[in-house]
Amino acid sequence: MVVVIVGHRYGWVPCAQEDGLTRSITWLECEHAMSCGKEVLAFLLRPDTAWPNEYREEHRMAEALRNGTATVELLGEVKRDLQGLEDFKKRISAVGIRRACQPGRPARSDSGSSIRMERQASRLWATFKRDGRHKTVSQLAARLVRLD
Question: Is position 42 within any domain?
């Protein structure tokens, strides 16, 4: 099983992809897991979830505008990544198990395993809130308790 938490950033896009696509590393990892027959349990932050601006995709452009370093290339990259994030959310919503969540208020589920995963996602959010930008999401995700 693969657990993915999708926030408001697209993430790193590896350069050399088949067919010239620009999928994020998270998207590629989920596609690989599904092609290997693994279940993908995705938690997507609801659009109305309060989220720090610096953890949103469009923040890069806002910062560049403030610093006077904005370029047409950066604008194109941010637009590409915003569209990619939207496309990834649609794709991940169409496969596997998906929950729209708001940190601190996990969705209810009939599946005991999904309930445990939602509790773990809430603990992850609490840790992220406490530690802030000092930890990466992957470091925090490593702290999740492994399910039996």
Answer: yes
